[in-house]
Structure formats: C-alpha cells, structure tokens
Write a structure and sequence with these properties.
The complex is a heterodimer of chains A (about 120) and B (about 110).
Chain A lengths: L4 E3 L2 E4 L5 E6 L6 E7 L6 E7 L2 E5 L6 E5 L5 E5 L8 E8 L4 H4 L2 E2 L3 E5 L1
Parallel strand pairs in A: 2-11
Antiparallel strand pairs in A: 1-3, 3-8, 4-5, 4-9, 5-6, 7-8, 9-10, 9-11
Chain B lengths: L3 E2 L4 E5 L4 E3 L2 E2 L6 E7 L5 E7 L5 E3 L5 E5 L4 E6 L8 E8 L7 E2 L3 E6 L1
Parallel strand pairs in B: 2-12
Antiparallel strand pairs in B: 1-4, 3-9, 5-6, 5-10, 7-8, 8-9, 10-11, 10-12
The chains are: A mainly beta (about 120), B mainly beta (about 110).
Chain lengths: ~120, ~110
C-alpha cells in the first residue's frame, strides 16, 4: 500500500518564477493538506483540500494556490517566488472524518530552493 | 489561537539512557495530541496519539507519552534510547472542530554512543 508520494524531491527556482509541486495521497484518503517547513522550524499549515475545494487556509499569501483532482491528488502552486519561499514542502493526506483523531500521513516532501 | 510549545531546541543523551521530550499545549478543552518524528530529509512519521481515555499512551519504536491536563503537557518518553532514535521530534495538537494540527517548532535529539 503506497503512502503519500510527492514530486519532485528537489527543485531549484529563480526568484520571480512560478513552481508547481505534486502530491498523491495514501490509498483510501480523501483529504490533502500542504505544509511549509522552513529550516529549523515546525511545519506551517498552508491549506487543505477536500472534494476538490479548499477547505481551510493558513496564513499564507494568495501567491500560494492549490488544486485537488477527482482522484484526490493535489498540486501546490507558488507564484512570484521569493527567497523566503525556500523550504521543505510537505504534503499530508487523511480521511476527513478521522483526521482529528488519527492524524495525517506525510510524504517525504519537496525541497524547494529559490536563488 | 492554538499554540504548541517545545521548550527544548536540542536534547543530547547517551545511547541506553532514558529520554523525555517536553511539550505544552494551549487548548483549554481536551485536545487531540500527537508526536511525530522526522529523520533527516524525510517526512513526518506518527509515533503516537492521544484523544481520550488512558492518559498514558504507547506508540511505535518503544515510545510512550503521558497526557497531564493539570500541566497542559504531553511529554514523550523512552526508557532506553538507541542511536537510530536521533531525529527531529514534533509535538502537535488539533482541537475543537479544527482538523488542522498545529505543530511545535521541534526538538532535535542527538544520541551519543
């Protein structure tokens, strides 16, 4: 049973560019959440998708957007990249009705470096 | 707003010694609490969780945690640390109707041989 799969694993982009990160949730999960983890920090919640809609959003600017597809996979898009966007981006999946009690399954992340 | 405090940025222990990592949560009612571990370059793996019942919960890899409402704490323990336990440990909580866990900043565990 595959867990959460993220691609690519590493990415280098130039300031001002746009980037798309991808995530396939664990089989049977219907909810995808995205987190940003800066070096030496805990994961910060970006947004969560359920039934192809953004369900909740953290304190991130509109440059961060996402999408969920009918097969539950998801994309995170970041426009107008800033140096401060350099981080590990984690995707986490869950089954919505059990999320609060059973937690999330995390992928290994995409390491984004903005130069 | 919810917040999770992990007061220790780094903890160093000798292999075979006992371990306790501290976590304090802010939610007034009963939160759902989690401990995750992150090895270098990897995602987060769930060690254990608490949402009701027995306040001492057992997790994977020999870890346990105790929920203490009076101290708003959920400390992680292990009686004998192995070198492979060296990693970053994160405490997290969800509360009320939120399905979104709030993470602490993490504690880095260093294990000396």
């Amino acid at each position: 049973d595959a867990g959460v799969t993220q691609s690519p694993t590493h990415l280098i982009k130039t300031r001002g560019q746009q980037v798309t990160l991808r995530c396939s949730p664990k089989s049977g999960h219907d909810t995808v959440s995205w987190y940003q983890q800066a070096l030496g920090q805990g994961p910060q919640f970006i947004f969560q998708y359920y039934e192809e809609e953004e369900r909740q959003r953290g304190n991130f600017p509109d440059r961060f957007s996402g999408h969920q597809f009918p097969n539950y996979s998801s994309e995170l898009n970041v426009n107008a990249l800033l140096l401060g966007d350099s981080a590990l981006y984690l995707c986490a999946s869950s089954l919505l009705r059990f999320t609060s009690s059973y937690g999330y399954t995390f992928g290994s992340g995409t390491r984004l470096t903005v130069v | 707003a919810q917040s999770v405090t992990q007061p220790d940025i780094h903890i160093t222990v000798s292999e075979g010694a006992s371990l306790e990592l501290r976590c304090n949560y802010s939610y007034g009612a009963t939160p759902y609490l989690f401990w995750y571990v992150q090895s270098p370059g990897q995602g987060l793996q769930l060690l254990l969780k608490y949402f009701s019942g027995d306040t001492l919960v057992q997790g994977i890899k020999g870890f346990e945690a105790e929920f203490k409402r009076s101290q708003s704490s959920f400390n992680l323990r292990k009686p004998s640390v192995h070198w492979s336990d060296a990693a970053e440990y994160f405490c997290a909580e969800t509360s009320g109707g939120s399905y979104i866990p709030t993470f602490g900043r993490g504690t880095s565990l260093i294990v000396h041989p």
